[in-house]
Amino acid sequence: MRCEEIQEMLPSYVTSEDSLAVRRHLARCEPCKKEVSRYQELGRSLSSLRGVHSEPAQDLLPALYAIADPETRVAAVRTHLARNKKTYAGVAVAIAGAAGAALWRSRSGRRLIPA
Amino acid sequence: MWRPKKSPAEQDEGLVSPQLVDRCRSGDQAAWKELVDLTYRDVYSLCLRILGDPDDASEATQDAFLKAWRGLKGFRGDAMFTTWLYRVATNAAISKHRSRTRRTKHEARTDDEMLAQIPSAASTESAAGARLEVQEVEQALALLPESYRAALVLKDVYGLTIEEIAKQLDCSETNAKVRIHRARKKLKEIVYGDPDRGVRDEV
Known about the structure:
The structure holds 2 protein chains of 2 kinds.
Chain A: H1 3-16, H2 20-28, H3 30-49, H4 60-66, H5 70-83, H6 85-112
Helix pairs in contact in A: 1-3
Chain B: H1 8-11, H2 18-25, H3 29-51, H4 54-71, H5 81-99, H6 105-108, H7 111-117, H8 121-125, H9 134-142, H10 146-157, H11 162-169, H12 173-192
Helix pairs in contact in B: 2-3, 3-4, 3-5, 3-10, 4-5, 10-11, 10-12, 11-12
């Protein structure tokens, strides 16, 4: 197999090592071996990110504490609703639209019934 | 051969005790504060890595803890609490990702434009042999298309199985594997340069 074909397989190969053809190629190809070491280095770096934490904005923590406080939870839920109001409004419009269409259909239906 | 580290639950074993969860379930506010203190950085960092935007990550974190609080009563004590919390957090981040209509500047760009923005390979190759800086990898992650990033983060940072990732991202296992494969390839190109663009300084 050519280096290009081997290198296309490397992103998955680095964690599975499931191809004999790739293994044989790597045994005698320095450039492809170099590529493998890069993927391995990236893999190690990615798994080390697990222990690296980003610090959120200061107002997040009080908001999280407030969730368990019955007096402030209402405010937290309100914020949640306000933030998602576009989604909820969209759902409401869709429901209203569907109801309107159903009503219209039932009315048109009624008109078809002879008096 | 490099293998992903242990799953989050395995690493955090003992971090959140069943007693603490019980106290939270009974409405103990001090216990809830303790639980939040123990887990919020992890949850926020997970959301940030999936979403790539601090404001979105804050909102997803709040959604996750709100859902966790409401779901505590239904939480089965036989599952590891942190495993469950990560699932809730990943769901919150993924649904935030689905619901937002605006696109971040990186995603609005085409892949070619995106790759043109990154520093030349020479600057990263100068550190060849040295361990990649955490910040460098975080920045490169943020440049990945979102659907690739979520799959890669769940697999290579948090050690979820393909089956779990497919479930979380609501895609087939084959699709999850393809996303991870492409994400690794793109991340490698971002960090070390794309050989097809002639920026790689050695072969």
